[in-house]
Amino acid sequence: MNYQQKIKGLRNYFQKSQAEFAKEIGVSRGSICQIEIGKHRPTLDLVTKIVDVYKINVHYFFIKDFPIIPLTSETAGELTEINLLAEGNEEIQEKELRSDIDKCLSDILNLKQKVIDLEKIKRDKKPDKPGKQ
């Protein structure tokens, strides 16, 4: 989920119009609109303001599929558990990312070798120019 989806999802979760949401966090409706259509990204200050106003976990903005969990005394225990899961998930994601990068690099090297082989075949198949023997 990207920033525009995160902002819009949060706004919809709290059942706020762009104007209401913007007013509560101290920006213009146009700013929210620009973020939601992908023309601008929210600043760290804006993310911090949203987290403070709506009492949500900042992880919502930075971890894929992190749920919107308003912070209340009832959710504090759940939040601690989710934070621990998120920390473990980051390690898994990093390992998966490294594996994906290694695979991509291997694929690139294989493709490069295929290009070299094809160029060699093309050179070998070219007929000799007349007059050269």
Summarize this, please?
The protein has 133 residues and is an all-alpha fold. The protein has helices at 3-13, 18-25, 29-36, 44-54, 59-62, 76-125. It folds into 2 domains: 1-71, lambda repressor-like DNA-binding domains (434 Repressor (Amino-terminal Domain)), CATH 1.10.260.40; 72-124.
CATH fold-level assignment of the largest domain: 434 Repressor (Amino-terminal Domain)
Radius of gyration: 26 Å
Distance between the termini: 64 Å
Q: What is the CATH C level class of the largest domain, in words?
A: Mainly Alpha
Residue-averaged pLDDT: 79
H and E order: HHHHHH
Number of strands: 0
Oligomer: single chain
User: Total domains, how many?
Assistant: 2
Helical content stands at 55-70%
Low-confidence stretches: none
User: What is the CATH superfamily of the largest domain?
Assistant: lambda repressor-like DNA-binding domains
Which key features would you list for this structure?
133 residues, 0% strand, mainly alpha, elongated, 434 Repressor (Amino-terminal Domain), 69% helix, 6 helices
Descriptive report:
There is one protein chain. The mean pLDDT is 79. The protein contains six helices and no strands. It folds into two domains: 71 residues, Orthogonal Bundle (434 Repressor (Amino-terminal Domain)), CATH 1.10.260.40; 53 residues. By secondary structure, it is an all-alpha fold.
List the helices and strands and how they pair.
Blueprint (H helix, E strand, L loop, with lengths): L2 H11 L4 H8 L3 H8 L7 H11 L4 H4 L13 H50 L8
